[in-house]
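Lab meeting minutes (informal)
Scribe: AK
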Amino acid sequence: MATTMANLPLELAHFNNFKQYIPGYADMCEKTIKTLEALGMIEVSTAFEQAISNIGKIKVISEDSADFADGSDAKYTSVRESNLTRPSPRYSSEVSGLRNKTGTLRVQCYERKQKKFYYFKIPSEAYEHCRGTKNATLEIPFEYDGTPRRIPRYETVKQNWWNYEVSSFEEMAT
């Protein structure tokens, strides 16, 4: 899928956060990479999988149910404001496309107000209730100032995704 120019800054934020982990990156021409970035010609999701594979030493298989041979899947997401389904707006990060996923989710989350990245390793049993939903998504909540909402606002929350936060890209990838 092509990157829209409106989404390009978010895509590049993700790419620039992990590009040093891409195999052979240190030997690549920086000018060429910058040109490809500006044109939206870098497939960030594929590069993300390769970076995880390189650090985690797991083979990329790119199947419908999993991205990696260990059954896990790579997801990157950005926090955004949404009020489509609720009377009051929310500030959260949506992890989508879970319907056919069967293993651990390796998630990189970018919060744009504070320009910070968060990492998660979410086991399949934690999100299995999401796979049967209409949109097959999960939402990682944030406060409107960009800080993580680590304590759920409502008692009815089925899963606190912050319980699966890890400290770094490296920890997420291994």
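Next up, CB showed the second protein from the same session:
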Amino acid sequence: MSIVRTMNPAKVEKNQVVTHLKVVKSKYRSIDVETNRIDQFWIFCKAVLWTNQQFQNSEVKEYKKLIAEHFHNSKNHDKTFRQLIERVCLAKRYVSRKKGRYISKPIDWLNINYKNGLIGTASWYKTVEKQRRTVPHYNEGIRKLSEAVLSYCIIPSLYDIRNYHKELIGTKQYDLVQMYAHTIFHMQFLN
């Protein structure tokens, strides 16, 4: 007896078993969201900031502990995730603007007590948020990137990848297009 997966029941021959797959989307998340966002944020950081470096499993475990401190008192992990994505983008752009600037190694940069690391970008993000109150589309590209990455993390969809890719190209901020492509590649194939 053979199993045939088909979308058209009229094409099924006798003596074949047909399985129908039904996609069900739950409104409840069964896996710990905070843990997922920490893992996904690490992948984003690796893809954007340390793409050419290899890390031992023990190092990655330590980096994720450091990232967890940024999520510690968060009531909305998705909102915190998006904010951290935007802050990484701000840091990446800061470093790219002038030769000689760099992002520290992850053990330092992710540490909540290292003022020149991720924690230092909080004031930059507050400035962007303040500016957005009067100019709603200010730095819209990084907001769109954070939305795109979160969307992929929740439900990976080729349709969404294409649409967000088009939207990011539309902003003419090609550094963000590259960050998005690297992130999707890392999440899909290197994770």
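CB comment: Residues 77-97 form the longest helix (21 residues).
No objections, moving on.
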